[in-house]
Model the fold of this input.
Amino acid sequence: ENFKPAQVLNSLKWPDSHVTTNRKLHFSIAKDDGDVHFQIDSLTGDLFLSKELDYETASHFLLQVLIKDYNNNPPQNNTVFLSIDVEDQNDHSPYFQDDFVVIGIEENVPVGTLVYTFNAKDGDGSFLNSKIHYSLEISSTGENPFLIHPLDGTLTTAFPLDREITRSVILTVSAADQAINLTHRRLDSLSAKILILDINDNSPSFTSSPLSCVMEDVELGFLVHRITAKDPDEGRNGQVTYHILAGNENKSFVLDKITGLLTTAQFLDREIQERYSLTVMAVDEGSPALSATQVITINVIDVNDEIPVFLNQLYETAVHENQNPGEFVIKVEAVDRDAGRLNSLLQYEILPGAGEEKFKINSDSGELITTASLDRETQEVFIIKGNGCHDLGSPSRSSTAQLHLTVLDENDHNPLFAKTQYQISVREDLEEGSAILDIFASDEDAGLNGQVTYSLIDDTFGTFAINSVTGSIVTTKALDRETKSHYTFRVVASDCSTYLPRSTTVMTVLIQDVNDNVPKFEQSYYKASVWEGQSPKPDIIQVFATDFDSGLNGETEYSILSGNENATFLIDPTQGILAANTVLDHENTSSYRFTAPSHSLVLLASDRGTPSLNSTATVLITVLDANDNPPVFSSPEYHVHVKESIPVGSHITEVSATDCDAGSNAEITYAIISGNDRGHFRLDGKTGSVDLMKMLDYEDTMKFTLIIQAT
Done:
């Protein structure tokens, strides 16, 4: 279409080229097919363009060319049809209707949401020259969250949007045609501003520390902690208020819901409670509101207000004679309820008194040792008065205790066991007469002083015996761990000297459990009651089942075996607490009686042994009435007509009301609260009967309006 006028497009030639030069031909375009765009040289047949072409106006021409041959007599006429196709040139640029658009999109739309459709036009006629390809550029250096379809111009979300990260995006949208020659391609562009609209999609987040400390002697109203939370949303979506959800059952603290200031509401005592864990909620004012919780730990800092206390006011112990200095005697111990390195750090000392020079106490540990060898024949008993301890607080606090020490007599050598104590484990189903351990003691003495015999002291409940010569310990009857799970007794090794020197060791026998006991409920039938209208999961009753086995064999799990088809109740599998799983209504259900098969709630207690053993119990739960229904009169108005002449004391009418509640909650009392100022009528508070108390006078009062209340 960009071919210039006056240029030869084509030349028509006579087929017989070898005689063409000798022929006299005349070329012309038929008038009916004539077009101002084309002309033909009548002598040579050259076709010229006489006017510029426009593909978008006309893309095809069909010309009828007349050729007259004067070499024939008469002249011969011929006709040639010439088809001309106009090729399109990319002479139009794509264009948008607007130079700048503003688009709003909510931040919570899913990926792939249509944001906008761009529509550019191109005046070219051929496919590639008018085919538009869209592209996208972002003005900032950040990630582009949008995607444009190159063919249809639809702008969609390519990534999740977040207004709190990106409030708006400015895009440059380009539309380019697809001319084959890349240098001939044309384009247009516009700017689009995408506004990300806020949605309440951010919960408040706490910025304050979850840890705070306060001295235990602070005054009421003392500022303990400032709770802060931020919400990046806008407007009401980002306004935060604060509330205590849990941990403040004794109302020790008050939280300002606007400022987040947490102050004391009661006096604190670290020795009663040294730590508080408050569950605090920060909630925004969006719709729906979003919230976050934080557990704030408040440590109560100690003040030295407690006196050290010995575990015993009187300590009694014994020590052998002839022992070297430094022999351990006893460890005394005191506790101080205060905390900290100084307030609870105790120092022990022996106060001056008779015999105190033979002993020394470790000031830190409270261990008492000898400083000299003791002689029982010289002094058998020491009474050490005034063992004292004090803390290192300011001011320091102290207390005292007393020690009675007995010096034990001994031979030069005693029989000695290999160990000071033994511990073995045996199964409870061990057969009677089985040997469990061979024990041995040696004595460095000779003769009778070194000949050892064995015996048992302490009560073994007739379960064990020992061979006095070999030291073999055997069972004398069947074991039952549930009757006694362990035995502790001393084995004595004695020599046969005149003075019978001996030594002992502690023998501990642990009985290993066998799953031979069924969990057993304390009762086979329970009765319980619960108030109607309580929030879901109020505790109703706690059942207990006892399994005398140990470990997994004795661990009991609770479940509801039957009678709970509607899941009205649930039970804690470890604690056996039976609770309502829904709000109960006395008026709809007076009781859940678990005796009929269709309503029988059977609780199952199972142990975790292999195989598992179990037992059952039955429960009857009564739903107690709460006064949640007001009395309702049988009629909102009562109309009564009486003659003025009726005598005083006459029955006028009777009102009645009903209450859906039960018991005392349904007992109704009636009273006149208005309209009986002159006392013409009396109302029976129990029956609702209205009687005349004064004479009536029609001329004085034609109508009385009494307002009666039922409570």
Notes: The chain has one helix and 57 strands. The radius of gyration is 54 Å. The mean pLDDT is 86. The domain at 629-710 is CATH 2.60.40.60 (Immunoglobulin-like).
